[in-house]
Write a structure and sequence with these properties.
The chain has 330 residues and is α/β, with parallel strands linked by helices. Helices cover 48% and strands 18% of the residues. It is built from eleven helices and ten strands. The strands form two sheets. The protein has a five-stranded parallel sheet with strand order 2-1-3-4-5, with helices on both faces. A five-stranded mixed sheet has the order 7-8-6-9-10, with helices on both faces. The longest helix is centred in the middle third of the chain and has 33 residues. Bound molecules: magnesium ion. Magnesium ion binds next to loops.
């Protein structure tokens, strides 16, 4: 996944859920249903209204469906309790807040409703202000859980990404590599690994300071991420070292990918606070798992890519060395 996808993913986390201001009303009594609808609309909620439990369940299974549901207990097709049970049995990600409506003369046990997963209940007839207060309380619960969800997702993002470049961090890119290696073992397709290292990076830090060095790293991250295919993976492996996972490519494809990465860094000077700086990248590429060959373990792949990178450095930098196809491991 390249950087723009990763950033889109992070931005998506901060968007409010579209289902938060919408309320589902499931009520078979047409007069009462219209009444509920007009109250909620007056309170600035969007409303989806249905007259039976089956339709309620259909609505709730759609993407971005309402997160709050007001369900009448007695309805044709499927009663409110069953809808409630299904909601709790199929909860994926976001929580839904359910208010159950009972009629005064129904001999229903409210405890049974709450046991089925309802958050609250109202006995008809009820005062409009009571409904309003209950809906408000429900919305507070949903907003709180939304905030928790965002916090959790933000932590998840931070745990897997390098804070400077927003690329996958060392731990995460290593996990990706293991997953892709397993996938290659399964489907028999090859896996390319590129280890890339900025040339003479220490001199940039020593001459211009760490702020300039950090800016170069950040820009390198963006350029690398923009130079790969959407299903390749770019991670910051160490200080000025990057690991790129290139699934399902042949040797020629991997060479072309590595060359694009080399050009992305070396072909245009970097803008910096001390003026334009020319930076180059050395790369070690390795491909494994093609044809009948067995996929070596990730340690062996990394070692081979590292050795190829070392040769690229020794041969004068700003170049790609390939370890070629690895032989099958015993
Ligand atoms: Mg009813």
């Amino acid at each position: 996944m390249n950087l723009s996808h990763q950033l889109e993913e992070r931005e998506a986390l901060t968007l409010p859920s579209p289902g938060l201001d919408t309320v589902l009303i499931a009520e078979d009594d047409p007069i009462f249903r219209h009444l509920l609808e007009s109250w909620l609309q007056r309170w600035k909620y969007r409303v989806v209204a249905v007259d039976n439990g089956l339709d309620a369940w259909k609505v709730l299974q759609q993407d971005n469906s309402p997160q709050m549901a007001i369900l009448d207990w007695m309805m044709p097709g499927m009663d409110g309790i069953e809808v409630c049970r299904r909601i709790r049995g199929n909860e994926r990600g976001r929580y839904r807040y359910v208010v159950l409506l009972t009629a005064k003369d129904d001999k229903h046990d409210v405890v049974a409703g709450l046991d089925a997963g309802a958050d609250d209940y109202l006995t008809k007839p009820f005062a409009v202000e009571e409904l309003r207060a209950r809906i408000r309380a429900g919305k507070r619960v949903l907003e709180l859980q939304e905030a928790l969800l965002h916090a959790h997702q933000a932590l998840q993002f931070e745990a897997e990404h390098d804070p400077l470049t927003s690329l996958w961090n060392r731990g995460a890119i290593f996990k990706v590599m293991e997953k892709e290696a397993q996938r290659s073992r399964r489907n028999g397709k090859s896996l390319g690994i590129v280890m890339a290292d900025l040339d003479h990076f220490k001199e940039i830090n020593d001459s211009y300071g760490h702020l300039v060095g950090d800016a170069i790293l950040k820009e390198t991250g963006s350029r690398l991420a923009a130079a790969v295919r959407s299903y390749d993976w770019v991670g910051r492996y160490g200080g000025e070292e990057f690991l790129i996972i290139v699934p399902g490519c042949d040797a020629a494809g991997l060479s072309a990918s590595a060359e694009r990465l080399r050009q992305a860094v070396g072909d245009h000077p970097f803008k910096s606070s001390v003026g334009p700086l020319s930076v180059t990248l050395s790369l070690g590429a390795v491909i494994a798992g093609a044809g009948k060959m067995e996929m070596p373990d990730c340690e062996a792949l990394l070692r081979a890519a590292d050795e190829a990178l070392y040769i690229a450095k020794a041969k004068g930098r700003n170049r790609i060395e390939s370890a070629g196809l690895l032989v099958a491991q015993p």
